[in-house]
Design brief:
single chain; 315 residues; alpha/beta; eight-stranded parallel β-barrel; two-stranded antiparallel ribbon; 11 strands
Length: 315
């Protein structure tokens, strides 16, 4: 298994703004934002010591879902490649790539190139997907998306390995004697599995190097962690898995405006004390999100988190 971050420390990352604009989490200012805003946020997170930046994946949104989801979903490979060129240390995470929509050799070519060009900074986050019309228009069986993802992960393990001519034989995919260069810079690409359903939890336990829950509240995390460890042990997977959680929205300081009832606000010490609970619950990394009214405020929040909150996370 491929571990990304050191054991025993709580690491922090963030989902990027602008690149996905579901009404669940997007701020109003993002609607008119673009590449320059995305770049400035990424540079700020890189300077502030964030462990990763994440980008989502949807090919096309049907009209029936366009209201709540919007149709703004940047391509994750293109987005992370763009950000790789303007950052230095931060890891680049697909959260999550719906890899079952594409042949694994296509995904392997894209993500191997990204890892090669970024100097080994890719974390491949994968998920089953939930938008039926996306699967149908691409000729992929939506009803089989779970088993298809399982096989795709196995195929990607082979295709992203060190061999120039990888080999794989499964029910849906088979390949050999087909070379792909460049190879990834990392010896083994870390695969983090997203989702909180029983099937996703099992998939993370058996096939994942990490787990990316989809918004589980704190009181649900201990049972999920215990289940993953139980399944992992039963499958004979000895390597530890990197557990993650998505935190409540944050605002460092006193906002002076309505940030919403589920936002954690206050001084750095107060926020750090609350976030340290995730480590006690078994988490290795937390994905944070900040409330903001414009890019400048978001950059300020990112900088303040890195300077004031992050040093207190592992006290």
């Amino acid at each position: 298994m491929a571990r990304v971050f050191p054991e025993g420390r709580l690491v922090y990352g963030m989902q990027l703004p602008v690149q996905s604009q579901s009404t669940i989490y997007a701020e109003p200012w993002e609607a008119s934002a673009g590449a320059a805003d995305l770049a400035e946020v990424a540079r700020a997170a890189d300077r502030a010591g964030f462990g990763y930046l994440a980008s989502c994946d949807h090919v096309a949104i049907p009209r029936r879902l366009a209201g709540p989801m919007s149709t703004v979903w940047y391509d994750p490979v293109a987005t992370l490649s763009f950000l790789a060129a303007i950052t230095e240390r931060v890891r680049l995470l697909s959260h999550v790539a719906v890899v079952g929509l594409r042949h694994p050799l296509i995904s392997a070519k894209q993500y191997a190139t990204l890892d090669h060009l970024s100097g080994g900074r890719l974390i491949l986050g994968v998920g089953a997907g939930h938008v039926q019309e996306e699967f149908e228009v691409l000729g992929v069986d939506f009803a089989r998306r779970g088993p298809l993802l399982d096989e795709t992960i196995d195929a990607l393990r082979a295709a992203l390995g060190p061999e120039e001519y990888p080999e794989f034989e499964g029910e849906t995919f088979a390949f050999k004697d087909l070379g792909q260069l460049p190879r990834p810079a990392q010896e083994r690409i870390p695969v983090w599995v997203g989702g909180s359903s029983p099937a996703a939890v099992r998939r993370a336990a058996v096939r994942g190097d990490g787990w990316l829950p989809q918004g589980d509240p704190r009181d649900r995390l201990p049972a999920q962690v215990a289940r993953i460890r139980e399944l992992r042990a039963a499958a004979g997977v000895g390597a530890p898995i990197e557990m993650g959680a998505i935190t409540e929205a944050l605002y460092i300081g006193e906002p002076g405006w309505d940030t919403g009832r589920r936002t954690l606000t206050g001084k750095a010490e107060v926020l750090a004390e609350s976030l340290r609970e995730y480590k006690a619950l078994g988490m290795d990394q937390i994905q944070v999100r900040f409330r903001s009214r414009d890019r400048a405020e978001l950059v300020d929040q990112i900088s303040a988190f890195g300077a004031e909150v992050a040093p207190l996370l592992n006290d």
